[in-house]
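Appendix B. One record, verbatim.
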Amino acid sequence: MEAFVNVLSFMIIIPLIAALMDSGTNWKVARWLNVITCSYLLVVSFILWGYLPLATGLSGEGIFSLDEFSYFALLFANILGLAFSIYLLKSEKLKFHVYFIMTMAFVNGALMTQNAVAFLVFWGLAGLMLYLFAISSKLASGVAKKTLIISGISDSLLIFAFFLLGYSNEALIGFSGGSPNAWEITALSFIVLASFAKAGAFPLHTWIPKYCEKAPIESAFILPASLDKILGIYLLARLFLEYGIIPQWLRVIVAGIGAFTIIIAVMMALIQHNARKLLGYHAVSQVGYMVLGIATGNPVGIIGGLLHTVNNSIYKSGLFMAAGNVESSAGTVELAELGGLARRTPLTFSGMLVCSLSISGMPLTNGFVSKWLIYQGVLIAMAQSLYGYKILYMFFLIMALFGSALTLASFMKLNFSIFLGKATEKTKDAREASLPKLIALLINASLCLFIGIGWKFFPLPLIENSLGKNLENSVGFLSTTQLLGVVTLSLVFGALIYLMFRKVRVDDAFVGGQKDTVKFRISGTGFFNDIRNMKPLKVIYNGAEKGCFDIYTHLKTGLKAMVTPLKLLHTGELSFYSVWVMLGFIVLLSIFLRGG
C-alpha cells in the first residue's frame, strides 16, 4: 500500500514528463503520446476508487491526498481529458498538445491536494494555461490579457482568504467549529469570488464569452467550458460542505448571484449570431445552476449542483467540439452564413442535437437529472427557511426555470441556423469533420444519454459516497418511480400535441413574394433581432455591449483614474524627487518617534 499511493504523485509527474517529451518532438508524435498519457490517467483514476482515501507526498510530506469527494471531480476530469486528446489528434499545432497535457497535470494536482499552498500553486498554473492558449492566437491577444488579469484576481483573493483564515500547510478548507466572525466572513467571501472567477459566474464572468469567441476552439472546450468549471465549483462545494456553519444570509446571497447569473447570461446568449460567443454565454449561464444548487446547503441541492458541474462539462465541451467541426467544415460559425448542414454533416448534427437537448434540461438527458435535483434542492431550502427567505428562494426557482426555457429557445435557434433550412454558399460543399473529432463529440453525446438514463447507477453512487448522504432518505426527494412518471407524462403530452397538429400542408416558403432560395431564405436569427430591439430590453443590451456591466472595465477605469495624479508627480526633475524622499523620511521618523 505504501508504494501504491505514490501513484497520486505520478498523476502529475507523468503528464509533465509527457509535456516535456512533446516539446522535443513534432505534433504527429505528441498527439499519440498525449492519448496514451490520458488513457493512463483514466485507467489509474478507475483503479484508485478501491483504495480511497489516499495520501502521499513527494518527499514524505502529505502534499497529495484523495478522498471520495475529490475523486469524483478527478475521475470526470480525466474522462474528459481522454476525449479532448482524441479531438486534438488532427491538431497540427505542437504548442496545443504541450499546453493541453500540462493543463491535465495542473488540474489533477489541484484536485488531489488538501494543502493550501500546493492548491494555490496548481490553481494559478491552471489559470496561466488559459493565457498561453489564448496568446497563441493573434485574434485573442486582447482577451488573453483580460483573462490573465481576472485569473490573477482569483489567485489574489485565495491568497488573502487563506491568510485571513491562518492557513499554511493545513487542510484546504478547515472546519471552523462554529459561526464565523467578521474576518472569517470576509475570507469566505473571497473564496466564493475566487470560485466565481474560475468557474465564470457573475460578476467575474465577462472574460468567458470573448475568450470562447476569439481563442482557439481547442482551448474553449478544454478550460472555460469544462476543466475550469470543475475546479471553481469543486472549491465552492468544499467551502459549503466543510466550513462549519455558514450563515443563511450568506447562502441566500450566493444563491441569488447564481440565479442572476442564469438569467443575464442566457438573455445575452439569445441575441448572439456567432455560435462560439453564444456558447460562451451559455457556459456562464450554466454556472448559475451549479452555484444555486450548492448554495441551498441541503444534500439534494448540493448533489444536484455537483452533478450539474460534471454534466455541464460533458455537454458543453461537446457543443464546442460540434462548433469546431462546423467551423472546419464550413469555415465559419456566423449563424447568418450557415444552414442546411444536417444532410451534409449528420454525425455532427446528431452530436450537437443531443448536447443541445441536454443543456436545455430535456428528459432522458444528464442535464435534466441535475437540473431536476437543483430545483428540488431549492424547494427544500424554501420549505426550511423563514418567510422572507422563502420568497427569495421562490424567485430564484422561477428564474432558474425561466432560464431553462430561454436556453431551449436559444438552442432551437442555434440548431436551426446551422443544420436546418437551405444551404448557403459556405455550406453547400461542406463535409463531415475528421474521424477523431467526430469520435470525441460522440463520446460526449453518448455520456449525456448514458448518465441521463442510468444516473442511479453512475455517477450518483459516487456523489452519495463522497458526501456520506443517501438521496432517497432526503426530505423532498422524488423517487425514481415518481420521476419516471413525470417524464412519461411530459412525453405523452408532447405526443398529443404532435397528433393534434401533424396534419398540416407542406408548401414552398416565400419571402416578400420571392421563393425561398439561398438569396431569399428564412434566417434563424431574425426573430431574436426583435427581442434585441424591444424597448424594455434595448437599454440593457446596449449597456451590456458597451461594457457597463463588465467589472473588468470598471476596475481598469478606476485604476487609471488613481494612477493619473501619480503620473503628474513624475516630473523627471531630481530636485522634485528629493523633496518627496525628504517628506517620506520625515513621515517615517515621526511614526517611529510616536511609537517609541
